[in-house]
Amino acid sequence: MGVLDLFVASTIPVIKVLVITALGTFLALDRVDVLGADARKHVNNVVFYVFNPALMVGSLSQTITFQQMVKLWFMPVNVLITFVVGSVLGWMVIQLTRPPKELRGLIIGCTAAGNLGNMFMVMIPAICKEKGSPFGSPEVCQSYGLAYVSVSMALGAVYLWTYVYSIMRASTTVDTAGGEGGDDLEKLPVSIINTTTTGTVENSLEHPLLLPASPTSNHNKLNAAGGEISSFPQKVKQGLTKTLGNVNWKTIFAPSTIGVIIGFAIGLTPPIKNVLVGDEAPLRVIQDSAVLLGQAAIPTLTLLVGANLLRGLKGSSVKKTVIIGVVLARYVALPLVGIVVVKGALRLGFIPANDPLYQFILLLQFTVPPAMNIGIITQLFGAGESECSVIMLWTYALASVSLTLWSTCFMWLVTSS
Questions:
Q1: pLDDT: is 123 or 282 the higher one?
Q2: Which residue spans traverse the membrane (predicted)?
Q3: Per-residue pLDDT at 189 exceeds 70
């Protein structure tokens, strides 16, 4: 595959995203007012509770199998590394730029969470269709590529809506409580109140993912104060009960996470899959409905990014150094780390050497722009929307150049090894 062909295959998917983003910005203009502030909030809720879970279920139930899961065991580790290393890089950006406290969660989210779903959904089939592709015939490449992308998208959704969501929620709650008159729960968005089941804001500050101590645990503390000595097994049991009972499961099991679980359950259970998936499946209408809803997630998310971008174009307090830091973290530092990680895993035998497409996708997971769902999270919390829009503007504008250059490098790496 020549450099020019690679440039076209890598650039066109990004241009498609930018065109739809521009349309979202146009629809959010005051004189058009199709995606105004209220409309964006309602559409965000539809994406969060309907489109994203349907996308997970539809993609995974069709493509995932037990054999592929055994083969792809390293991908969850690879995605986790991207999030951990990205978080460290985000922390370094914060230390160097000293942004306001309410933006720290947003910065870490943008450096940690990459677009592991819709960007790959557009980019991988385009690369497979190009003449001279090193990944075999277009049909085989696209079939395996979509399976890999589905797993990547599912893993990204799980990590995003647990790890990054919690970080950004904690940052938003800190800002709300720290501002003047910010400790009033009535001023928080409904989505935060629903997912944060603590009784007060102060409790959520100390333990963003924990609920208040149960009466049983308080009773145990009184017993301990009274001099009663519990046996070691009782202490272990009490600790597990307290930990599991205090976890905010609503946050961990977000709708997208539930969709991932259902998708894996269908795909990895042949009797259920035969009933729901396939042209001859008796209940295929359920699967077809999920796929139809899921197809709406990608363009809707892209439109919302463009609509939220309007706030950034109207003015934002985000520093230029923050934008530069996020761009360098995502497009310079992370890809270099990715080369070391993937090449090391290949040398240790964790990755099959005869599957360059799998290696290519693992490398790309370190290179893509920030996840679009970060814009959804800022919209849900009602904080950092304009700043997020500006960061998204620059990262996606530079993505065409970055993805083209790194794709060229990765193609050479996976075909020369």
A1: 282
A2: 6-26, 72-94, 106-127, 147-165, 252-272, 292-310, 322-346, 358-381, 393-414
A3: no
Q: Which of 378, 361, 304 is nearest to 51 (CA)?
A: 304
Q: Average pLDDT for residues 184-200, to the nearest whole number?
A: 35
**What are the extents of the domains in the chain?**
3-209+251-416, 212-246
Weakest-pLDDT range from 248-257, 268-277, 320-329: 248-257
- One of 2.60.40.10, 1.20.1530.20, 3.40.50.150, 3.30.70.260 is the CATH number of 3-209+251-416, namely 1.20.1530.20
How many whole angstroms separate alpha carbon 4 and alpha carbon 197? 54
Residues 6+ apart with CB under 8 A from 10: 123, 127, 400, 403, 404, 407, 408
Total number of residues shown for the chain: 417
46-95 tens-digit pLDDT? 988 898 888 888 888 887 888 878 888 999 999 999 999 999 999 999 99
* Per-residue three-class SS string for the chain: CCHHHHHHHHHHHHHHHHHHHHHHHHHCCCCCCCCCHHHHHHHHHHHHHHHHHHHHHHHHHHHCCHHHHHHCCHHHHHHHHHHHHHHHHHHHHHHHHCCCHHHHHHHHHHHHCECCCHHHHHHHHHHHHCCCCCCCCHHHHHHHHHHHHHHHHHHHHHHHHHHHHHHHHHHHHHHHHHCCCCCCHHHCCHHHHHHCCCCCHHHHHHCCCECCCCHHHHHHHHHHHCCCCCCHHHHHHHHHHHHHHHECHHHHCCHHHHHHHHHHHHHCCHHHHHHHCCCCCCCHHHHHHHHHHHHCHHHHHHHHHHHHHHHHHCCCCCCHHHHHHHHHHHHHHHHHHHHHHHHHHHHCCCCCCCCHHHHHHHHHCCCCCECCHHHHHHHHHCCCHHHHHHHHHHHHHHHHHHHHHHHHHHHHHHHHC
| CB-side neighbour CA atoms (13 Å) of 201 | 21
Q: What is the per-residue pLDDT across 223-245, written as a single tens digit (0 to 9) for each? A: 444 544 556 567 666 655 654 55
Q: What per-residue confidence (pLDDT) applies to 332? A: 95
In this model, does residue 407 exceed pLDDT 90? no
Higher-scoring residue by pLDDT: 397, 352: 352
